[in-house]
Amino acid sequence: MVAVNNLSYFIAGQCGVPALCYGMPGVAKTAVMASLSKKQGRALYTLIGSIREPGDIGGYPSLDEEDGETFMCIVPPKYLIDARKQDTNLFIDEIMACSPGTQSALLRLANEREVGDCRLPDPTHIYAACNPPSITPNGFPFEAPTANRWYHHSWMFPREDWLNGMAAGGNFPVPDIPVLPDDWEDNMMEMGSLVSQFHRRTGRFLMPEENEEGEPVLAASERQKAWPSPRSWHNATKCLAAAMSVNADMGINKELVEGNVGTGASEAFFAFWEALDIPDSEEVLEKVVDARADKRESIDDLIPELETDQLIVFLGALNGNVGRDNSLKRWSAAQDIFEVASERSAESALSQCAPLYKEPLFPEGARVSRGMADAVKRVMGRALDEIGYGDDGGDDESQ
Questions:
Q1: Where exactly are the structural domains of the chain?
Q2: Which of 155, 163, 168 is nearest to 32 (CA)?
Q3: The model's pTM
């Protein structure tokens, strides 16, 4: 398991979720960011929010001419020009000390990645930092819509690294922060199935209640930090997929979810997750691959008996495993697993099988099995019967 101070903050930033940390002055936020950038081979560009104007963020207007026509354009700021030349970590410091106008410009930058008439390159990672609002003079805490767009993290001072660096005469060690592998998004199917099934079962934590004006009903502390919405749950899912790719422990997972959707929603989600006890889908897949190679007639005993919630999440993880290596033998073994699952719970299996039959999972030479085709017919037949479209076509009134 990976154990690094503030790992969740750096995971969020690397997977494309704007990451904001809160910490006292002088606790190595900027120094650690510089070390991480050096290790990644990325440029570091720091924007000090308290001394910036909106135009410094989004660019300033200028007149240009083309084919005899004069028009206004936005001159892009230097950090955008630099980010086009080299992969960059953009670090926004003192973000709570920005004026509301500058915060708005930063919000568009961080969440829409738009800078004037241009777009921030996708490889750019966005981080921000601030002191706790209580010690930020003339500060401007986030409003609820702004807060919902960020991952919120309480910075932990890397005390041991600092002590070792001081003992070495100020030569501070580079934090061992893992860099996300290129295939981290392969875990999105597994984590997405888990998050989706949680919301299907609970129905309470996807978003807060609304008042008569359509505004979210939130406590004062929630309005300025993490709270649940479809957007923040999507961000949480991305963070979980990224954390899985570096073998982060459950404590990091909890930080990532809480920092996106808030404490109450996070606690309910992990209670659901920990109660599931999902088997390792990759291990099961490999057993079925071996069984097919040995021309074993039945694989039923290799497929664990699972409750509905467990089965749906297990099959979502199975799709993710095929996404990492969709060789024909692995794909065919996965289809066999889906076929057994469809015999036990057809609706649950079919609700998860669509990715298996689409690109990029569907390999050349693959064929839909008779068992899966029959499962679709069984489920569709029952569904059509229920709404009056049986084999006899139903009567005119039902149609």
A1: 7-273, 281-386
A2: 155
A3: 0.85
Q: Which two tokens stand for residue 85?
A: 């030349």
Q: What are phi and psi of 270, to 5 degrees?
A: -75, -30
Contact 175, 36 (CB under 8 A): yes
On whether the CB atoms of residues 18 and 128 are closer than 8 A, the answer is: yes
Quick check: 49 and 92 in contact, CB under 8 A?
yes
Q: State which H helix or E strand residue 296 sits in.
A: none
How many Å apart are CA 219 and CA 268, to the nearest integer?
18
CB atoms within 10 A of CB 194: 21
B/e letters for 238-248, b = 16+ CB within 10 Å, e = fewer, are bbbbbbbbbeb
Q: pLDDT digit string (tens) for 137-152?
A: 666 778 888 889 999 9
What is the pLDDT at residue 269?
Answer: 96
From the CB of residue 36, how many other CB atoms can be counted at a distance below 10 Å? 24
For the segment 374-387, the average pLDDT, to the nearest whole number, is 71
Report the CATH fold assignment for 7-273.
Rossmann fold (3.40.50)
In 3-state terms, what secondary structure has residue 53? coil
